[in-house]
Amino acid sequence: MQTSYYSEDELQSLGFKSVHNSSKISRFSRFYGIERISIGKFVRIDDFCIVSGNVTMNNFTHIGAFSGLFANEGSILMCDFSSLSSRVTVYAHSGDFKGTSFNGPHLGKKYGFTIQSDIVINKHSVIGTGSTILPGVTIGEGVSVGAMSLVNKSLPEWGIYAGIPAKFLYSKRRDIIPEIERQFLIDYSEKLK
Q1: Confidence band (pLDDT; 50, 70, 90) for 109?
Q2: Three-state SS for 69?
Q3: Cα 125 from Cα 173, distance rounded (Å)
């Protein structure tokens, strides 16, 4: 019986910079610059995702269906237990929309200007469906971003943010999430060996 996920042997043959056999990656996802993509333990990538360029997904990360991570220039790091809901788009590089240059990768660097800067999505952060993260953003540990938000600046740890652009709403996650992680690691200790 064939599943929608690559088998362990298939994962190893795809050409990733590194990939752990415990990860579940949809056959319907697409990877560009696969030799620059690193995937840790127990990562899940759902259907119809695009991952391009210098992307690292640490352990227990998840990318929901129809999401895109674009780091042909710059890099994207997803730390342990971070998650992107469906239709999230993360750009480590973007065109300049100020009207001072053409936009589009087919025009070359002489006529088009791109903004590029690394993105870090820290441990226990979750990004809500339909959200967009722009170049240079660091999502602090434990941050929750509401659906349909635009993240155009770094967000301090453990806050809950939403909107266009994303603004601080409140914070309670710091009191709960570390204890859930502690219990999870106890329960999964055998699998993690």
Answers
A1: low
A2: strand
A3: 10
